[in-house]
Structure formats: structure tokens, C-alpha cells
Amino acid sequence: MIAIFDYGAGNLRSVENALDAIEVKYEIVNDAEGLARAERIILPGVGHFGQLIRSLDSLGVREAFKERISAGVPFLGICLGLHALFERSEEAPELDGLGVYPGEVKRFPKDARVPHMGWNELESQGSPRLLANLPSRPYVYFAHSYYVPEEIGSDNSAALCEYGVRYTAALEAGNVFGVQFHPEKSGSVGQQIVRNFLAC
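Given the sequence above, the corresponding C-alpha cells read:
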């Protein structure tokens, strides 16, 4: 079962539309029991890091996420769902992320226009599974003010992007995948990325 996790503020409808478009069945889940049944997990992200982390803790699913990831269940974090994989974020420095990866998510420099919103080019790193059957520099849709620095995502980087600074736009390591952009809003390219995740 493919599970889309609902923490109360994610962009669920767009993710549902993306899966519907490629004719994939899924369930919306919001508890540890739902995660335990999942064969693949998608954590969408729209909003504030603090809101996401507080919601995961109030729902009692922090350890369930970490256990399922450790068990090898394929996981895709989208935008804020990518940020949640790290230890912390400048958006809510008082809260701990899931800590799957070390390091801190940063805010774009003060002179940058934020949010970074619109289409931008990915620079593939190596031969990432997420970007299979796509050009080496596909365009995808972004909407964010915080980013994963290139240096903390480098070991697992699948793609980079540049918006004032170069940053990690996609990562993959074993069963864990994360994207800064929104595949569900990136047309046919985004649909192929979702298909690639589901094939991993």
C-alpha cells in the first residue's frame, strides 16, 4: 500500500492528483498504524517546519517514521518533507527534525527574493534513480524559502539547483528519497519522477 501521510497541512490534493494521473492506488494515513501497513510512504510538505514537526509529535508518529525508514520502506519527502529528514531547520531551530540525516536546513540569504517560486533547472548528480528517463537538466516547480545546503546533502545528492546559492534539490540514499521541488506540480516531468520513486 502506498501511503500519503496527512499531518493536517500538507498539499495532499495535488499529490493525490499526481498519483491519480498515473493510475496508482494509495491511501491517506495519519497515524502509526497506517504507516505500519505502508509499503511506500510519501510525506508532502507545505507550510512551516515547526508546524510539521509539532504535528508529527502530536500524532505520535515520529518514531514510527524512523522505524519504517530504518526497516527499508521506500520514503519520499516533498519540500518540507525533505527538510524533516534533517536534524533541524533555521525555520524553527528549537525543534528537532527526524534526524535521518545530519545538519541544518538554511534560509535563503537576506538579499534573495523569497519564496523561490517557479520553474528552475535541476543539475543531475551521477545517475540518480529518481531522475531516470529524464534529461540531465529537467525543469521542475519550486516554492520554498529554506533549502538543504549543498555540503550537507552532498553525500546523497541526486540533483542540485541554484537560486543565489547552490543547494541540494534532490537526494536519495537506499530507500530514502527527498525533493525540494514539487513533482506533483511539475507536469509530465514530475509524473515521471513519481513513477521512478514507485519503481524503486
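The chain is about 30% helix and 30% strand. Try to locate this feature in the C-alpha cell string yourself.
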